[in-house]
Amino acid sequence: MNTRNLATNLQYIGLPATTVVIGGLADDHHCILRTEDDQWEIFFYERGEKRHRVVVATEDIACTYIFGVLAQSQVLSERLVLAD
User: Pick from 32, 63, 72: which is nearest to 50 by CA?
Assistant: First the structure.
């Protein structure tokens, strides 16, 4: 997965494409940024602070990670029901 198709994949699990901000910061949003040393950081940006920050090596891992976190949230809140 990459940042170009992450938004589409989020829509498949019932979330708006704007749930994750790519390459920037927005209060009360999940964000993905490329770091200066070519890694990727994922975090929730709130009140000017990066919360639950994770740094990974590739864009694919970053997108898959945040997609998994958000999909799990949708399942736990029963907004996304998995088939038996």
Answer: 32
Integer CA distances (angstroms), 3 to 8, 21, 61, 65, 79, in order:
10, 10, 11, 12, 23
Q: What is the 3-state secondary structure (H, E, C) of 6-57?
A: HHHHHHHCCCCHHHEEECCCCCCEEEEEECCCCCEEEEEEECCEEEEEEEEC
What is the rounded CA–CA span in Å between residue 26 and residue 7? 16
Summarised one tens digit per residue, pLDDT across range 34-49 is 999 999 999 999 999 9
Stated pTM of the model: 0.89
